Amino acid sequence: MTTTRQPSDNPLPADAPLARELLDGLAEAVLTTDETGRVTLLNAMAAQLLPEITVGTELSRCPVAAVAHAVTTDADRFDADHHGRRLRGARRQLAGPRFAWYVRDVTEEHDRADALRAERSRTAFLAEAGSQLGMSLHRDQVLLSTTTLAVPHLADAAVVLPRPVAPAEPHARWTRYADGEPAPTDGLAPLTLTSTVPVLAEALAGDLADPIPCRATELTDLAAMLPPGFGSPGTVLVCPMPGTDGSAGVLLLIRRTGRPGFERREIELAREFVARAGAALATADLHDEQAHLARVLQASLLPPELPTVPGVTVAGGYRAAGDTLRIGGDFYEVFPHSRGALFALGDVCGRGVSAAVLTGRVRQCLQTLRLVEQRPLELIRLLNRALFDAPDAARRSQFTTLLLGSLDRGPDGVDVRIAGGGHPSPLLVTTDGSVTPVPVGGTAVGALTTARFAETRVHLDPGDVLLAYTDGVTEAHGPRDAEMFGEARLHAALASAAGQPPAALIDRVLRAVDEWLDGQAHDDIAMLAIRASVPA
User: Fold this and answer.
1) pTM higher than 0.85, yes or no?
2) Of the candidates 489, 523, 522, 524, which has an alpha carbon nearest to the alpha carbon of residue 508?
3) Which of 133, 330, 448, 477 could in theory staple to 524 by disulfide, Cβ–Cβ 3.0 to 4.6 A?
4) What is the mean pLDDT of the chain?
C-alpha cells in the first residue's frame, strides 16, 4: 500500500539550523512579519543593513522611515538612503496575513547609474559647447557663448576676462552672465582685480595651467562684476583659457554661498570646457585678423573709382566669380594725363585669391610704368618684361590678357590707340545702333618672353562708345543647355542701349547676362565703356 505524503501545515521552525544557515547565506536582507505586523524573523544581512529592527519590532513604527512609510501606505516597494547605503526593498505576501520583506543593498548599482548619467550629461554638455563655440567665428560671440553655456551647468555666474588685445590696455574687459539674467553683460573690471590677485595675473599671463578653486574673499573687487541681488559669492573656480600662443583669457565660475564647492569631476569638466572656449576664442581672433587682411586686400584690389577725363565719359562694371571677398582676376584702370588718358582692361588667368595677387602685381606695374611710358604698344612690352623679371615668374606660370589704350581729344571727337595682348576685341557702338568689333590681336602678357603685341587705332565721333570687356561676359553659361551668352547677344544688348550714357549701357549688358545666367555661377566679369562727349 502506497502512502502519499501531504505537505506539512507547519513551516520549518525559524531556529532550525538548516533554515538559519540558508537565510544567513543570502546576499539580501530578509525579514518576516506576523499578522500583527511585528517582525518574527531576521537574517544576518537584515541585522547588518537594518540594525534598528529586531524581532518583535512593529514594522509600521520602526526607526527606518522608508520601511515604516511603505508598511503604513501598504506599498510593496521602497527605495531609500540609510546609513550611507542605498537600499531597495520589495514585499511578498506569505500564507495568511503574514509578509516577507526582501531588502538589497544597491549602493554600487546606484552609483554606477549615477556615474553613467553624469557622464552622459557631461558628454552632452561638451558636445553642445563644442557645437556652439565652433559656430562662433567672432570674438564677442565666443565670449557670450562661453558665459551662457557655463550657467547654470557649472556655476551660478560666469565671468570671462579675455587677454587684453593691446598689452597697454589699462583695464580688463569682462563679459558676465548670471543665473536669472535676461542676457550677458560686459564692462571694465577695476584695475586692482588683476594687479593685486596673483592667481588671476598668472592665469592671464599663461603661467597657470589648471583650474584653481578660490574663496570669493580672495578675489578683490569681484562683487563689482556681479549683478545686483546676486547674493554673497562663495566658491570661485579660476579657469585659465589656453590659446594658440599662451593664455586666451580667464573664466571665473562663481557659486553662491551655500552651494557645494567644486568637486574633482566638476573641475575636470571645467578644464575641458575652457579648453574648447579658449580654442574658439583663438580661432575667432585668427578669423578677425584674416577678415581684416581680406578687407585691406579687397580695398586694394577692387576696381577704383574712375576719374573725370575732359572730353570723354567713362564707366566701369565689375562682378567677381562668386567670391565672398569680391576679388578676382579681372580689372580695369583709367589714368588721366594732360592730353587725355590711358586706360587698361585685363583678365588674369584663374580666379579667386591667387588670380587677385597677380592682378595686384599687374596693376602696380602699370601704375609705375605709365609714369615713364604712355604709348600703349611700348607700355605693354614694358609690362611683359616686368612680369618676367619678378622673382617667382618661373614658378607662377600665370598670364594676363590685356587691352591698353590712349585717348587723345580732338575737335571732332576722340582718337584712340589700342595695344592688345590676347584679349577679346573691343566693340565700337555708334549712335545709330551699329556694333562693330575693333580687332587688335597680340599674345597674352606674361606668357612668353618673346611675345608679340599689336596695336590699332579707332576714332570716336561724339556720342560713340568704345566698350572693352572680359570673356566672363560672352562665356556666361545659361542654366538650360549650357549654351554661352555669346557675342550675338552682347551685340544685341549694346544695340538696344545705343545713344545712352556709358553707365546705362553697362547696366543693360549686366542685366542681360544676369537674366541669361538665371542664378548660375559665372566667371569674373569686367567692362569699361568710353564715350566721346557730345558738344554742348
Assistant:
1) no
2) 489
3) 330
4) 85
